[in-house]
Amino acid sequence: MKVNKLDLDAIEAGSSADLVLKVAELERQIFELRQENRRVAELYDLVFARLQEDNPLKA
């Protein structure tokens, strides 16, 4: 997922409601990316632990 860029020039001056909506959308995207990052880290830890357990070269 790619985070959208906050383009302040595209938002009309004086339209704080548009700015609030855009910031809320960016915050939602950041939250989703953090969740995905956490899942990737958990999977990495599981794979690494499994490789250590099943390592045929382990003494």
TrEMBL record:
Q: Per the record's keyword annotation, is Coiled coil included, yes or no?
A: yes
Pfam annotation, one family: DUF6752
Top-level taxon of the source organism: Bacteria
Q: Which InterPro entries match?
A: DUF6752 (IPR046640)
Q: Which residues form a coiled coil?
A: 16-43
Q: Keywords in UniProt for this one?
A: Coiled coil
Domain DUF6752 intervals: 22-47
Origin species: Microbacterium esteraromaticum
Provide the protein name. DUF6752 domain-containing protein
